[in-house]
Amino acid sequence: TQIELAQRELGARKGKVKPILTGGSYLDLMRRWKLAVFYDQQGNLTTKLGIRQVPALVTQDGRRLRIDELL
What we know:
This protein has helices at residues 2-12, 26-33, 44-49, and strands at 20-21, 38-39, 56-61, 64-69.
């Protein structure tokens, strides 16, 4: 699932990830993970970044943002 994929990324990147939820309960996830989880209200962030499909990983590459759609 997307939640499991996010957990793997958190582990692989040693917690240097800011999970952003696009649906569901961010409070439940925060309690379960004991970690700040953000919620993209009304799709503002995904629209601004041009993310068309989730899950996606956004990383910084120099002065640019790199957006990878994860399968």
